[in-house]
Amino acid sequence: MSGKQRVVILGAGPAGITAAWRLSELGYPVTVLERDDAVGGMARTITVGNYAVDFGPHTFHVRETEESRRVLASIKHFFGEDPLVLTRGTRVLLRGKEYVYPLEMLQVLKGVSPFLSARIIFDYLVATLKSTFAPAKREDSFEEWGVRNLGRTLYDLCFGIYSERVWGLPTSQISSKQAQRVAKLNLKNIILRTLGINADPATYFTKYMYPRKGISLLYEGMAAEVRAAGNVIKLQAPAVRVERDPSTGSGQGGDRVARVVYREDGQEKSIDCDLLLSTLPLPALVSMTTPALPAPVVAHAGKLRYRSLKLIYIVLKRARMTDYHWVYLLDEQFRVNRLSEQKNVSPDMVPDGSTVLCIELSLWKDEPLWQASDEEIYQLALRDLMKMGYGVTAEEVLEYHVTDIPTAYPVYELNFEEHLIPVLDGVHEVSNVLTLGRHGLFLNNSMDDNVLLGMQIADHINRPEGADSRAWKTEMLAFMNLRFAGK
Fold first, then answer.
1. pLDDT of residue 261
2. Cα dihedral 193→199→205→207 (10° resolution)
3. Which residues contact 315 (CB under 8 A, 6 or more apart)?
4. Which of 68, 38, 363, 375 is nearest to 216 (CA)?
5. Is residue 336 helix, strand or coil?
6. Which long-range contacts (CB under 8 A, 24 or more apart) does 385-394 make?
7. Integer Cα distance of 426 and 117 in angstroms
8. Residue 62: which residues within 8 A CB-CB, separation 6 or more?
9. What sign results for the dihedral spanned by CA atoms 8, 11, 17, 19?
10. What is the pLDDT of residue 340?
């Protein structure tokens, strides 16, 4: 490995561990610092009681693109023997009835009352006429985007109420960029799909891959190859300080990171680096950098917010509750967002005679419910579960477990780019720092995206001209804009 730059990677989630694996293949000396006791980040398998479950099933999207096929071919061996290839099994609960997702319009129109069906069609026609004859000069909010594309009634039913609960804000205060995952999900696509005509594949990809023993198998396999190459993954070793070298470069505090200070076994230790790759939340990276980045960068970073999650695992004494991977809860009566059933992703993970549900509850960390006891959180989730129509009773519950994810999803408030872009600019002015992944880019992307980014950053570093933080930032902004456009 002599002659190669020393790379330190902050975080062993999908993007970080993929970058470490690919850089190890290319012969770079790599050290990964991870605060948790396992690799995989939010996409990992954990033990709750006697059961192995994911942080909600994390399936690997199979997109019908050349790029996706290339990525999958390079990592397929990490999925283990006989990996599962799944077809999306998703439902939404709306007005007490189940609907297929992506939505099939005839099913919706038949399922709701004739009056509501007429309102859906009328509102869509009005929205279409407005879009045709008075197109919006700009679409600031998620609400404006939704009403323009779906009509008021369908938007409120299928996205408005649910989105406010998930993001903790009125959708008039959420950027239309938050619609990235459904950006092409308008009534035209819904109708085309209902009639059996292919709609946009960016919206309707339906295939997933999954290791039979849980998603961690993918990232543990990568970690094993990193270690086999002689590189280091330090678990339970959170970074606490990123130290810039005042003797290099120009401007406040120099323009290169010299070392990273981390905590291990109760002591502070340091490691020198030539390149620093960070998958940490941008505000965390900015706050731990010393000497501090310019004051405007620090101020903008303080404006970027993350939504937190409580995950409630409920073990039921029944073979299965549903046949689906995910169920989204759209009605106002629910406080939780969705549930998933691990056995329906991989039957090998949960014993016969019982099933494990994962119920997701979105929160702000500063609201009182975040501090509630596990028993209180469980009782809230159980009440919602009993409203869903699956006949669940408290007597069926064998056990429950509650865990949390403090920084689960970046929140795209109105005009969030006014804060995000200066932060990305400021961080990447440090010439040997490159950020990637959901938190490192403040991008609500999928697991397959983060694996792709991990491979891309390794290839960027391995260019003949070497790594260039500004060039990487430009490349990432282009990538983010594609995802914001739903592509």
1. 98
2. 50
3. 49, 51, 354, 355, 356, 357, 397, 398, 399, 400
4. 38
5. coil
6. 385/314, 385/339, 385/357, 385/359, 387/333, 387/334, 388/93, 388/327, 388/329, 388/339, 389/93, 389/96, 390/321, 390/322, 392/316, 392/321
7. 50
8. 68, 72, 85, 205, 207, 208, 209, 448
9. negative
10. 94
pLDDT tens readout for residues 66-119:
888 899 999 999 999 899 998 878 888 888 888 877 666 566 666 677 787 888
pLDDT of residue 203: 47
Whole-angstrom distance, CA of residue 57 vs CA of residue 215: 8
Mean pLDDT of 187-197: 53
Cβ neighbours around 39 below 10 Å, total:
27
Structure-token match 């690799």, residue found: 39
- Per-residue confidence (pLDDT) for residue 183, from 0 to 100: 46
Q: The pTM is what?
A: 0.91
For residue 54, list its beta bridge partners: 45
Residue 252 gets the label, from left (phi > 0), alpha (psi -120 to 50) or beta, of beta
Give the separation between CA 13 and CA 281, rounded to whole angstroms: 12
Q: What is the pLDDT of residues 17-61, one digit of tens each?
A: 999 999 999 999 999 999 999 999 999 999 888 889 998 778 888
> By the 8 A CB rule, do 212 and 84 touch?
yes
What region, left, alpha or beta, does residue 467 occupy, with left being phi > 0 and alpha being psi -120 to 50 degrees?
A: beta
Q: What angle do CA 69, 75, 78 make, to 5 degrees?
A: 140
pLDDT in tens, 404-461: 999 999 999 999 999 999 999 999 999 999 999 999 999 988 899 999 999 999 999 9
